[in-house]
Amino acid sequence: MENIKAFDKYCQNTASKEDMTTYYDSWSSKYDQDLDAAGYRGPSMIAKALAELYPDTRENVHILDVASGTGLVGEQLAKQGFLLIDALDPSQGMIDKAKSKGVYKGMICAYFDEKELDIKAGSYDAITIVGACSAKHLTCGCLMEAVRLIKPGGFFLMSTRPLSLQSVEDKEPFETRMENIEKEGKWKCIRKEIVPRYLDKNDGVIFIYQIA
Ligand SMILES: C[S@@+](CC[C@H](N)C(=O)[O-])C[C@H]1O[C@@H](n2cnc3c(N)ncnc32)[C@H](O)[C@@H]1O
User: Where are the domains of the chain?
Assistant: First the structure.
C-alpha cells in the first residue's frame, strides 16, 4: 500500500492534471504490480457488473473504457467475453502498456472532459470509468460527454473509493452532478452500491446509470 499512499498524497498536492499525466507516464511500468499487491478489485467488479447487464451475447457490445490506464479493466472485460473495447487515457505511458495487452481495438490518447471528442454521438453501448474520479483526474464536465457518446438504453458504469470521489475539485460534487443529470431525465440510476474490499481494506462505490 505504500505506493498507493504516496499516490494519494501526490494527487492532493500536485498542481495540475498535466503533472498527474507525467506521474502516470512514469508509474506505468510498475502500476500493475503495485495495484496487485494492494488487492485492487475495481476492474473485476466493474467487468462483472457489466457482464450481468449482458447475460447472453457480449462480443458485439461496444465499450469505451475511459481512463483505461494500463488496461486492467480491459483485461477483466475480455475475460467476461467482451471483445469490442476502445481505450481512452491522456497518459501515453499508460496507453502503451494497455496496448501491449492486446485487449483493446482502438486507443485514444486524450483527456475526457467537457470538450466533445471527435466521436459520433451514440457510438457506444457502454462507458466504464474505474478509479479515475479523484483529485486532478476527471471532473463533472465529462459526464455530459459520456451521456452524448452512449446509445439510448446503454450504460454508464463508474467505480472509485468514496473518499476519492469527495476529493474531486469542481463547482458541484460529482455525485450531485450525476443526480442532477437524472433529474434532467437524461439517465436513470439503476445501481449504487458500496462494495467492501475494493482496494485493500477500503470500500469502493459502484454507480450504474442507464441512458434515457
Ligand atoms: C488510477 S488510474 C486507473 C486506471 C484503470 N482504470 C484502473 O482501474 O486500473 C487513473 C487513470 O486515469 C487517467 N486520467 C486522469 N485524468 C484523466 C482525464 N481527465 N481523462 C481521462 N483519463 C484520465 C490517468 O492517466 C490514469 O491512467
Answer: 2-211
CA-closest candidate to residue 81, choices 56, 100, 64: 56
Whole-angstrom distance, CA of residue 97 vs CA of residue 93: 6
Ligand 1: residue of 3, 29, 94, 99 to mutate (most ligand atoms within 8 A of CB) is 94
Q: How far is the CA of 179 from the centre of ligand 1 (A)?
A: 23
For 83-100, how does the pLDDT look when each residue is reduced to its tens digit (9 = 90+)?
999 999 999 999 999 999
Residue with cell 506505468: 28
Phi, psi dihedrals of residue 132, rounded to the nearest 5°: -130, 10
Question: Distance, CA 160 to ligand 1 centroid (Å)?
Answer: 11
Q: What is the pTM of this model?
A: 0.96
198 Cβ inside 6 Å of ligand 1: no
In DSSP terms, 199 is beta-bridged to 40, 202
Q: Is 111 in the pocket of ligand 1 (CB under 6 A)?
A: yes
* Superfamily name with CATH number, domain 2-211: Vaccinia Virus protein VP39 (3.40.50.150)
**Selection from 97, 104, 205 nearest residue 157 by Cα:** 205
